[in-house]
Design a protein that fits this description.
CATH superfamily: Aldolase class I
Order of helices and strands: HEHEHHHEHEHEHEHHEHEHHHH
CATH class: Alpha Beta
Number of domains: 1
Shape: globular
Distance between the termini: 54 Å
Number of helices: 15
CATH architecture: Alpha-Beta Barrel
Largest sheet: 8 strands, parallel, barrel
Strand content: 5-15%
Structural class: alpha/beta
């Protein structure tokens, strides 16, 4: 049994890709996208029909040119999501524009529109996770959406304070970014690589997992943003892991035994202090964590840049 097969015994495997052919190849339970992944996929001829349909939809809307462009952008994200849901049996994550990460009313409106587009396409909202950045405002948005039966995936998550705030808000799923955490520490410390058990990204997700299981939080944990197969296997037992196709392929070639690394029963026995959070405490803890502060801001900026590139792809053809 290869390591991908072994991993599936411990963890729900999610494809981290907008490439529908790659998702079909690995048959994950769920799939997740973001503006960067959709931009890469939308540039391929194979998905031209999804882009053209989004453009027609945007052109048919009333309102300003900017509003029609927004409508086309949302339709493009949903078009990819619908195609992915033809393949995976579970859920797809679709992201709200990162430029709205500090705007609760606008994020709520955008999320509701995405869900309406999915439902118009015949997709049950239970199969969609709305992705939001793990800012205080993003978490507040998710709290309101969850109360409406719109489930959320809080992304760009880099520290325990963000994770606990999400759990206390009733968020369905969080995506701590393993690789980006490790990138920051490698650059700071001048380290080429870490052993998996000492990898800062792995340790961060392990701490979140143990906290959630210790205090019986229902929020699912999905490790994301992996750089190596070793990071993936070090988190065997995490609720979900979203993995790029290149790493899925590598795991298929590895035959070494893959033991359970994260265990709720073990977590329940650990001596962990409960973290008390308010808005001011959240903001202070995030501020005190240089890595989390920098990577959150950088991630929002990077997703915003790719959203702008997507807009450029379709703006010239959206009236």
């Amino acid at each position: 049994m290869n390591q991908l097969q072994q991993l599936r015994r411990h963890t729900t495997v999610v494809a981290d890709s907008g490439d529908i052919e790659a998702i079909a190849r690995y048959r994950p339970t769920d799939a997740t996208t973001n503006p960067s992944l959709i931009l890469a996929a939308a540039s391929q001829d194979a998905y031209r029909h999804l882009v053209e349909d989004a453009i027609r939809f945007g052109n048919a809307q009333h309102g300003t040119a900017g509003e029609r462009l927004d409508a086309a952008m949302d339709k493009l994200a949903v078009n990819f999501g619908v195609e992915i849901l033809r393949i995976v049996p579970g859920r797809v994550s679709t992201e709200v524009d990162a430029r709205l990460s500090f705007d609760v009313p606008a994020s709520l409106a955008r999320a509701r529109r995405l869900i309406a587009l999915y439902e118009a396409a015949g997709i049950d909202r239970a199969r969609v996770l709305i992705k939001l950045a793990s800012t205080w405002e993003g978490i507040a948005t998710a709290r309101a959406l969850e109360q409406e039966g719109i489930h959320c995936n809080l992304t760009l998550l880099f520290c325990l304070a963000q994770a606990v705030a999400c759990a206390e808000a009733g968020v369905r799923l969080i995506s701590p970014f393993v690789g980006r955490i490790t990138d920051w520490y490698r650059q700071r410390d001048g380290v080429a690589a870490y052993a998996p058990e000492n990898d800062p990204g792995v340790r961060s997700v392990t701490a979140i997992f143990n906290y959630f299981k210790k205090f019986a939080h229902d929020t699912e944990i999905m490790g994301a943003s992996f750089r190596t197969a070793g990071q993936v296997t070090a988190l065997a037992g995490c609720d979900l892991l979203t993995i790029a196709p290149t790493l899925l392929a590598e795991l298929e070639t590895r035959e070494e035994p893959l033991p359970l690394r994260l265990d709720p029963a073990v977590a329940a026995t650990l001596d962990i202090a409960r973290l008390e959070l308010s808005e001011s405490r959240f903001r202070w803890l995030l501020n005190e964590d240089a890595m989390a502060t920098e990577k959150l801001a950088e991630g929002i900026r990077r997703f915003a840049v790719d959203a702008i590139e997507l807009e450029r792809l379709i703006a010239q053809r959206t009236g």
